[in-house]
Specification:
With 195 residues, the chain is an alpha/beta fold. Helix content is 42%, strand content 18%. The chain has one domain (2-194): Flavodoxin domain (Rossmann fold). Helix 1 (14-27) packs across helix 7.
Length: 195
């Protein structure tokens, strides 16, 4: 079974809704399983998380990664950045090299910084040697969307938190399918060098 982590941080549910659509796309690919994971709030919340917190061991042993964050001043949210700051041992060992990864985001306004946030999330993945997967323009919904969706990754315009448009759902699922398909193709080579 190809295991792909869908890691997200969500404050109001919009990024979580996008994560669930990406997971749906991953699970649609034969032999692939999406593991929905989140990170603790800063400071820690008294509310229990809706999905388990990601561990470094789970990240080390995954075959692919989708990572999502709401737009926070054009950047990824601090709890997600804090998690990546703890992954130095994985960087030193090269545990994530050549594993495919994609990113996704949500914002409350159309020009609220979606693309800069997607690019900021790609930076730690590139430093870990991961292979970035985007959404190609062969996806018809990328040409017609009036809300979210970029070549850098799936996105959501959260005018009503958690309610994704048809194009946003389609693009998120297609991104999950593309990530899963690439993970399936790359896993045999990755398993001999990184596990």
């Amino acid at each position: 079974m190809i295991r792909i982590v869908v890691l997200y941080y969500s404050r109001h549910g919009s990024t979580q809704a996008l994560a669930r659509q990406i997971a749906r796309g991953i699970n649609a690919v034969s032999g692939c399983e999406a593991l929905l994971r989140t990170v603790p709030d800063i400071p820690p919340s008294a509310e229990p998380p809706s999905d388990p917190y990601l561990t470094c061991d789970e990240l080390k042993n995954c075959d692919g990664l989708a990572m999502g964050s709401p737009v926070w001043f054009g950047n990824m949210a601090a709890p997600l950045k804090h998690f990546w700051d703890s992954t130095t041992p994985l960087w030193i060992s090269g545990a994530l090299i050549d594993k495919p990864a994609c990113v996704f985001t949500s914002s409350s306004s159309l020009h609220g910084g979606q693309e800069s946030t997607l690019q900021s999330m790609q930076l730690p993945l590139l430093h870990h040697g991961m292979l970035i997967v985007g959404i190609p323009y062969s996806e018809p919904a990328l040409h017609t969307t009036q809300s979210g969706g970029t070549p850098y990754g799936a996105s959501h315009l959260a005018t009503i938190p958690g309610q994704l448009s048809a194009e946003e759902k389609t693009l998120a699922q297609r991104l999950g399918q593309r990530l899963a398909s690439l993970s399936t193709r790359l896993t045999p080579a990755a398993s001999t060098s990184n596990r």
